[in-house]
Backbone:
């Protein structure tokens, strides 16, 4: 995402300043970075919110000062307008691909969803759409929807508790990168890699390594480079006097280890 946003900025003659908290759950640090950007007369902001609800007051300060914001990875937590839009993966497609992968792999059995987080609305939407689509396939039953966390050890514990409660589980859909890594860890530690289909979300580097090593079945992700490029192009267009475009949802794809092997061979 950084690479794509930087390329768009360079094409337009702008400088991109990129920073983030060291922890995904450090809301205070993200608020501090936003406040500093506002104080330093930043022309526009691309924001990947740690907790969208907690950032609304600071986001409104940007809007009061007529500084455009493009939220990435999830929908904006406040209504779109002249100074607010978003570029995010197509969350409905994320759920659809997960359902299709499970249906192509098993014909019946128990399935769980892990990683739901109210501070990350995309996880809620992915889970909701997944359950709604899976309900039309009565032979496959969603037996658990587990709340998530931004900390991998806690995500591992959450996935482990689901496995304890449902020992005949056939598949698990992890709706965030953290939930995916936690599930990978506990499934591998228990030696269940051959008996549980794990479908994860978001192409973090460590998850791509897990996928390549066969520690998860598949990963559903958007093109981060394209997402960052489109977010920066939207922001730069606004700085050049054009209205911000409406929220944009970009396609995602399901990636398997064989897909990565084909890419390497090319």
Residues:
């Amino acid at each position: 995402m950084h690479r794509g946003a930087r390329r768009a900025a360079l094409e337009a003659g702008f400088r991109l300043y990129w920073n983030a908290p060291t922890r995904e759950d450090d809301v205070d640090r993200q608020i501090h970075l936003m406040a500093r950007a506002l104080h330093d007369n930043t022309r526009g902001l691309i924001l990947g919110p740690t907790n969208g609800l907690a950032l609304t007051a600071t986001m409104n300060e940007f809007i009061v000062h007529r500084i455009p914001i493009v939220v990435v990875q999830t929908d904006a937590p406040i209504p779109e307008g002249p100074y607010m839009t978003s570029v995010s993966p197509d969350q409905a497609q994320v759920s659809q691909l997960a359902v299709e992968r499970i249906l192509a792999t098993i014909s019946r059995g128990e399935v769980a969803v892990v990683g739901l987080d109210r501070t990350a609305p995309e996880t809620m939407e992915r889970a909701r759409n997944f359950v709604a689509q899976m309900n039309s396939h009565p032979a496959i039953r969603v037996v658990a929807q587990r709340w998530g966390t931004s900390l991998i050890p806690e995500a591992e514990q959450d996935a482990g508790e689901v496995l304890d409660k449902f020992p005949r589980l056939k598949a698990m859909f992890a709706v965030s990168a953290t939930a995916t890594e936690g599930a990978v860890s506990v499934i591998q530690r228990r030696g269940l890699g051959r008996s549980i289909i794990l479908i994860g979300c978001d192409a973090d580097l460590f998850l791509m390594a897990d996928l390549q090593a066969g520690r998860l079945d598949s990963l559903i992700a958007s093109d981060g480079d394209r997402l960052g490029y489109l977010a920066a192009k939207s922001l730069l267009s606004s700085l050049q006097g054009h209205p911000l475009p409406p929220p944009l949802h970009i396609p995602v794809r399901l990636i398997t280890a064989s897909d990565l092997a084909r890419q390497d061979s090319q």
In short: The mean pLDDT is 92. The two ends are 23 Å apart (CA to CA).
